[in-house]
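Entry for magnesium ion complex. Fields follow.
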Amino acid sequence: MNTPIPLRGLLRTMILLRRFEEKIVEVYGRQDMKTPVHLYIGQEAVATGVCAHLRPEDYLFTTHRNHCHCLAKGADPTPLYAEFYGRVTGCCRGMGGSMHSSFPALGILGTSAIVGGGIPHGVGTALASRLRGDGRVSVVFFGDGASEEGTFHESLNFAALKKLPVLFVCENNGYATASPLANRQPSGDISRRAAAYGMPAERLDGNDVEAVYEAAGRAVEHLRRGLGPYFLEPATYRWKGHVGPGEDWENGARPRAELEEWKPRCPLARLLRRLETEGFDRAEYDLLLAETGARLDEALERARSAGFPPLDQPEHFLFRQGEC
Ligand SMILES: Cc1ncc(C[n+]2csc(CCOP(=O)(O)OP(=O)(O)O)c2C)c(N)n1
Ligand SMILES: [Mg+2]
């Protein structure tokens, strides 16, 4: 790629993603955020590096682990937090919880917590873009577990057949709930299956935001040139448990030593080290952390102080025309 990688912009996004979720960890014990939360801490380089190439009108589909994909696409933190608190100002008006984020103005038409459920949705919007000739691309984020669903194969086959502008991003974090990949698949190489459908498929280090940015750049350019779908398989690791703010070794779901092995590979620390070799000042990083933290504290408080949905008004459940 000839254009320089916007490292500082990527750093700002990664700090936002990390601090957004750290705040959830901080407040979750108060028991007033009732939604289950599937945290993304440790995987931030993937959403950051991919979404940096997207335009506001491009479509994005994600999963139960969706907060950071939405933020990286440009979502406002306040309606996300408000949704987690079940407030009327939430992105689903307090009726969806953290697994169903929706920001139609940002091309996030709705999120499915059914594993693999977002994959055909992204193929559908890509087909719509092709028929309309509107130049939008679709990106679908999903986990290694979703590659075991039938819809994964149906969707990849159809997208390749019709040469649709859809980027499949399989975030291989090595686990589906408490099941390690090695116990579920004969070969851990998911991208080979995508390649078999006749699309470019790359495996990469999902904790290296520069590598993700470059691969996603190649992929999105391929889509925009009308050359058909593209598949990325970034390898990464989630620091928190499958659901909730714990770490999943306490309950025997995975070995603590494995988590400790991955922590030094922190994608944010890695980018910071890289920037420091170019003279980036640590004080600037600390300032960014503090500013982002203060902004998120405000968002959290604004979210928590809003009212609950009017459960006696059935029309509250209906989407207004033009909302999606
Ligand atoms: C069709 C379906 N089966 C099972 C579940 C329960 N479930 C929720 S998340 C999950 C694991 C998903 O693993 P993966 O796709 O790798 O995503 P990750 O949680 O690692 O981000 C399972 C089995 C579900 N939501 N939908
Ligand atoms: Mg997984």
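NOTE: The mean pLDDT is 96.
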